[in-house]
Amino acid sequence: MAPSSVTVTSRFHESITRNALRSYLAEFISTFFYVFLVVASQMSSRKLMPDASLNPTSVVVVAIANAFALSSVLYIAWDISGGHVNPAVTFAMAVGGHVSVPTALFYWVAQLIASVMACLVLRAFLVGMHVPTYAIAEEMTGFGASVLEGLLTFVLVYTVYAARDPRRGPLSSIGTLSVGLIAGACVLAAGPFSGGSMNPACAFGSAAIAGSFRNQAVYWVGPLIGATVAGLLYDNVLFRSHPTDSTRGEGIGGV
């Protein structure tokens, strides 16, 4: 058997071990909680403020929900799956060699299913309310919105890499809180323009349940490119990469 075939086979077997399956379950649970809380906050703001698009308070509500929810779910999943909770983060980790391609694909499946399930639960129990989708402001083009989402995701993923770097010491609640805070800041900065998704799973889940995939590419292309650039820049330009555990997406000897 050729060496490349052996490598592919071993990578696949690593992706279906007990620890790997625990990681996928952790990603599912954490992504479900995150999407549920973020989308529910959008629905809550619309319930209290029918004309939420003209009320700046609605952006603050969603930003706070993003910050709190992301900080919490990262803290929950960090030691099990690496706390990706975002296909863009997983994609950057795969490109950078921190996780294998099969593992990344399983992460994506877990994240996307969790997002759809979270939005489905909201639609089932919040009768009479529509699941909101991410939308682009009239003054923005699809390309401009994609670039904006890419920049926001760059900031988010760069913060994720910095927070998980073992050279900064053991992970504490400050690390996950910093990621949540930067996510909240990004929503405040771009919410009225592109929605401030930064998470393809969140955009996909709400669009799937709402039945509208308009401008969906904006929330995939921009974030995936932004996340990849952030990861490669952190690993190869500013800092040198550490050996990684391919089933968790983190440095060996890290948190």
How would you sum up this structure, described in words?
It is a single chain. Helices cover 71% and strands 2% of the residues. Residues 251-255 have low confidence and may be disordered. Helix 6 (142-164) runs antiparallel to helix 7. The chain has a two-stranded antiparallel sheet with strand order 1-2. The protein is built from nine helices and two strands, in the order αααααααααββ. The chain has helices at 3-14, 18-48, 56-81, 87-95, 101-125, 142-164, 173-194, 200-210, 218-238; strands spanning 244-245, 250-251. By secondary structure, the protein is mainly alpha-helical. It is a multi-pass membrane protein. Keywords: Membrane, Repeat, Transmembrane, Transmembrane helix, Transport. InterPro entries: Aquaporin-like (IPR023271), Aquaporin_transptr (IPR034294), MIP (IPR000425), MIP_CS (IPR022357).
